[in-house]
Amino acid sequence: MEACRLAIRNLKKSFAVPVLRGIDLDIRPGEVHALVGENGAGKTTLVNILTGLLPADAGELSLDGERYSPASVRDGFAAGISFAAQELGLVDALNVAENIALRTLPGPLSVIDRDALRARASAALGQLDAAHIDPAAMPGCLSLADRQLVELARAMSADCRLLILDEPTAALTAQQAASVHRHMAVLAKQGASVIYISHRLEDVLEVADSVTVLRDGAIVSNLPANDTSANQLVQEMSGGVLMHNRGTESSGRPVQNLLEIRDLTTGELPHPITLACGAGEILGIAGLAGAGKSELLQAMFGLAKRTGGDVVRHTDDGALSIRSAGEAIATGMGFVAEDRQSMGLFPHLSVLGNVMTPGAIGIGGSLRRNGGRGERRTVDELIGRLTVRCTGVDQPVTELSGGNQQKTLLARWLRLDVRVLLLDEPTRGVDVATKQAIYDLLFELRQQGRSIVVASSENEELMTICDRILVLSDRQPATLLRRDSWSEQAILAAAFSGFDRHDGPTRAEVRP
Question: What is the pTM for the complete model shown?
Answer without folding.
Answer: 0.64
